[in-house]
């Protein structure tokens, strides 16, 4: 590693900036920054579904959350994989018999 400055810190900084430049230059053409990625369509389910049916859909769609809508189509809440872990699995509730509205996070705020 060549460097004009012979001090220890200069060589470390010179090496680090060179590796950052080379990483940027080696970016593939098909890579995009996070700001350009398109999010997936949300998974929507009704509040009368069971936890089992919601988690099966989440698993098949490789999702980690579902938006739950009421009978009028308005947002009633959200259920995440963390909700299922803490409120169903940890309490040993039967997923096939537990209504999703009993374990969802209600009164969600849209931002």
From the structure above, extract its key features:
111 residues, alpha+beta, 34% helix
Description:
Helices cover 34% and strands 14% of the residues. The protein has three helices and four strands; from the N terminus they run H-E-H-E-E-H-E. It has a four-stranded mixed beta sheet.
Helical fraction equals 25-40%
Radius of gyration: 24 Å
Let me know the largest β-sheet: 4 strands, mixed
Per the principal axes of the C-alpha atoms, what is the gross shape? globular
Structural class: alpha+beta
User: Can you tell me the residue ranges where pLDDT is under 50 for at least 5 consecutive residues?
Assistant: none
Mean of all residue-level pLDDT scores: 82
How are strands sequenced across the largest beta sheet? 1-2-3-4
Helix count equals: 3
Strand content: 5-15%
Order of helix and strand elements from N to C terminus? HEHEEHE
Q: How many beta-strand runs?
A: 4
Distance between the termini: 49 Å
Helix-strand layout with pairing:
Elements: H1 8-25, E1 44-46, H2 51-61, E2 65-69, E3 75-80, H3 81-89, E4 105-106
Parallel strand pairs: 1-2
Antiparallel strand pairs: 2-3, 3-4
């Amino acid at each position: 590693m060549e460097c004009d400055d012979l001090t220890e810190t200069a060589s470390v900084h010179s090496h680090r900036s060179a590796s950052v430049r080379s990483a940027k230059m080696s970016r593939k053409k098909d890579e995009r920054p996070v700001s350009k990625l398109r999010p997936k369509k949300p998974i929507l389910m009704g509040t009368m579904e069971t936890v089992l049916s919601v988690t099966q859909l989440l698993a098949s769609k490789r999702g980690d959350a579902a938006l739950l809508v009421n009978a009028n189509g308005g947002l009633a809440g959200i259920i995440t994989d963390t909700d299922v872990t803490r409120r169903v699995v940890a309490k040993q509730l039967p997923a096939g018999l537990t209504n999703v509205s009993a374990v969802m996070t209600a009164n969600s705020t849209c931002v």
